[in-house]
Specification:
The complex is a heterodimer.
Chain A (H helix, E strand, L loop, with lengths): L5 E4 L6 H10 L6 E5 L5 E5 L7 E5 L7 H17 L4 E6 L18 H12 L3 E5 L14 E4 L2 H11 L5 E5 L5 H11 L3 E6 L10 E4 L6 E9 L3 H12 L4 E9 L5 H7 L4 E5 L5 H6 L3 E4 L2 H13 L5 H4 L4
Parallel strand pairs in A: 1-4, 4-5, 5-6, 6-7, 8-9, 8-11, 11-12, 12-13, 13-14
Antiparallel strand pairs in A: 2-3, 9-10
Helix pairs in contact in A: 1-9
Chain B lengths: L4 E5 L4 H11 L6 E5 L5 E5 L7 E5 L6 H17 L4 E6 L26 H5 L11 E4 L5 E4 L12 H10 L38 H8 L6 E2 L3 H11 L3 E5 L14 E4 L2 H11 L7 E4 L5 H11 L2 E11 L29 H6 L10 H10 L5 E8 L6 E9 L3 H12 L4 E9 L5 H7 L4 E5 L5 H7 L4 E4 L2 H13 L4 H6 L2
Parallel strand pairs in B: 1-4, 4-5, 5-9, 9-10, 11-12, 11-14, 14-15, 15-16, 16-17
Antiparallel strand pairs in B: 2-3, 6-7, 12-13
Helix pairs in contact in B: 1-14, 2-6
The chains are: A alpha/beta, B alpha/beta.
EC number (chain A): 2.7.6.1
GO biological process, one term (chain A): ribonucleoside monophosphate biosynthetic process
Function (chain A): 5-phosphoribose 1-diphosphate synthase involved in nucleotide, histidine, and tryptophan biosynthesis. Active in heteromultimeric complexes with other 5-phosphoribose 1-diphosphate synthases (PRS2, PRS3, PRS4 and PRS5).
Amino acid sequence: MANNSIKLLAPDVHRGLAELVSKRLGVPLTDCKLQRDPTGEVSFSIGESVRDQDIFIITQIGSGEVNDRVLELLIMINASKTASARRITAIIPNFPYARQDRKDKSRAPITAKLMADMLTTAGCDHIITMDLHASQIQGFFDVPVDNLYAEPSVVRYIKENVNYEEAIIISPDAGGAKRAAGLADRLDLNFALIHKERARANEVSRMVLVGDVTDKICIIVDDMADTCGTLAKAAEILLQNRAKSVIAIVTHGILSGNAIKNINNSKLDKVVCTNTVPFEEKMKECPKLDVIDISSVLSESVRRLHNGESISFLFKHSPL
Amino acid sequence: MSNNIVIFGGDSHPELVNRICENLDIKPSQVELGKFANGETSISVRSSVREKDVYVIQSGCGHVNDTFMQLLILISACKSASASRVTAVMPYLCYSRQPDIPYTAKGAPLVSKPRNSLSSTSKTNDENTTTNQSKILHNGVLQSTNTVNRPGSEFPFKSLDNAIRSSIQMEQPVPVREPKLAKTSSMSRIPVIPDGRISRGANNDAEELFNAQNSGYKLWVVQAGTLIANLLTTAGADHVITMDLHDRQFPGFFTVPVDNLYCKPMAQNYIQHFIPGYKDAVIVSPDAGGAKRATAIADALELSVAIIHKEKRSQLPKGPPDATLTSGVSLSSKPLISHNSVDDTINSNSNQVPVLSANGVATEFANSNAKSSKYIQTTMLVGDVRNKVCILIDDLIDTSYTITRAAQLLKDQGATKIYALATHGIFSGDALDRIKLSPIDKIIVSNTIPQERTIKKLGKHRVGIIDVSLVFAEAIRRIHNGESISMLFEYGF
């Protein structure tokens, strides 16, 4: 019987998360090489045999060159497939195009579905992702999708870093109410809701607060922070309603466009993101940023997946 | 034209889209192309496509991953908006040519870096289609290259070889190993005389490290052809129209029909009308893989042919058996055949290879640089070009190493005027600078890829553009009406 072991692959940019996972698992990253020609075409090679191995490809897709990262990932998957890997698991903590998940107007593309089709076409056998924008996206795939939650790690962060007896959990929009309520339940806290009327993507209009935040530390919880306009506005409204202070915890800190400027100018004390998205460079420009490391969850899920154990434990608990 | 047709253009080549639409006498349909703040592509389709015959035109140029994703999303959007058929029109199909060796940052294939300071400063350093050779360029810069890349560029079997490899899902890794040896996918065909000692020295080339760590494993590079084909069909393309695919086998990767149009009729037309004295010209193929392409044009125009052939043979120092080597006059400074043969035995034998000069510098270089391989690298010209107008024919020009080197060789061999004709002018990196310095008198490319930069850089008189919009428009018209398009293959338009 051939031995079947874990092989970790990562593209050459944004390897931070992959390196953390590799360290935790004690499995070195497999040598591989991505080369781009000036137009952006990618060629890829794997430095060792992956025949009959259990491949995990870890990629951090943030903002900017999303399409480059996607094509690189697809080519890496396909390369592993054609190299006779036994199983290929793509670890995409921040699933790209997750917000294009429905036909919200005529002839709008459902790009999330296209992404799912493309990943399976390339030869992906399993997807691990985290806090999908809509968990229904799992249904777009023909292969198993493990949607991990950052919640246990967030709970730990709050317990360790915030005086949480005085805190209240805020959902910045109605869609996130369930997530916020879940977190509030876990911490035994109250929660409040900000209702907003969105005019266009990446733009915020009027906001209304539902609930009482007087003299509380407000923790805004969301799955994604893009330009941070919403967060900044929400912080203002909360402070207008006599909140003591406001911090924001988001899973995917995409922080594109004017995000850093918005955060620096906002009344937020802190913006905490998980490291599903690479934002190390942005931390230098913005002292308000803080990071929650979720590599432990990912590495544990890799280990469990490889050994055929249950992953649902990780939905409630955050391994150290 | 029936009102059942809808044409969308991506943002890669709006001019071609407009020209095609002009020829079809319809307007391109409204589509809003943009990006979200986080870099994801956003598209909104402004006109109805229900039960329409949709054509999406996007060339594989610019920032290819972005343009390709845009194409996929646009196809997917049309498909999910109930279009009856979606045809992807890709004048140049990106990822249709994948080298066997990774690219360097400059875009040239990765090579083991020569330790010679001269050559490492040389810009014209690596080359796209040759293997392991050290030679003196016309500017006297010593250089070393080893690589191979484009399928079909070196051995006649290679394109076939590649296609087979891709179609059998690459079970055979492309062997690319000891950086000091020639790295070529056809290496298995070449008898290797092993020489235990490979000097690794201070050469910190990533690939070398790479291989040193994994001595039992041969580095190979994935060929993305099948993947690209599958992605297009997954997105919902029912039909693909493209032009002059690098691999003739590429349509086999698709499960949907692919119409590969040819630029050849237009190229012939151009030669007949715009190249003075073409009747005495010689058609030259810059590599053996393109010989068929060149001979087809030569046959049609009844011109003579010459072929530049880069060959790597094992050490046995017999002359190239059936090569006609024209002239060795200019050899002292510009060797027709140079070699990177590499151990002393070969160097001492090298003078037995006809017309092969173990040039002083080259020998020194070979001695210092590569003690491991027993290959002789030869570049030879088969055919007579003296006092003739030469027309170099290739399907695409990317880094332009091949074409400029070929042009230099032709000039050295006494060609009077050199034209270079290719379907796809990608001109990545500093390709245009290289062409500017080269003896190429005029470069002729089609407008499958925008050529404004080329004209700006080389000046109008040195660039000829072949307009392919008419043939694409005609193909779209015929496909829409369900007529045969095979006439376009023969006569163009």
